[in-house]
User: Fold this.
Amino acid sequence: MSKSPVHRAADAPMKVHLNKGETYVWCACGRSSTQPFCDGSHQGTGIDPLVFEAEKEGDVWLCMCKHSGTPPLCDGTHKEICAIDKKLADAE
Ligand code: FES
Assistant:
C-alpha cells in the first residue's frame, strides 16, 4: 500500500456534467467511494476536499489521479504518472 496520503482513484479523468452556480465538493484524497466527489472518507488524512462552484453549465473532465496541478480539472498529469509506473514496471 502506498505511503502517500493521496490515493489515485483512477489513472484517467472522469467526464462530469456540471450545473452553473451549483456547488460541488471534489475528492482530493482519492478515498471517496462516490468519485470524483467527496464522501467524507478523507477524515483523519489531513487532506481536505476542494469545494468549488461551477461557473458555467456543461461537461468537464475532473481529475481522478488526484495529482492535477489545476484541481479539480485534469491537466494531463495522469499521463506522466502512468509513464513513470510503466518505466518502473519495465525495470522490474
Ligand atoms: S486525471 Fe489527474 S491530471 Fe488527469
User: Anything to note?
Assistant: The two ends are 18 Å apart (CA to CA). The mean pLDDT is 95. The pocket of FE2/S2 (inorganic) cluster is lined by residues 12-13, 63-65, 67-68, 74-78 (CB under 6 Å). The first strand starts at residue 14 and ends at 18.
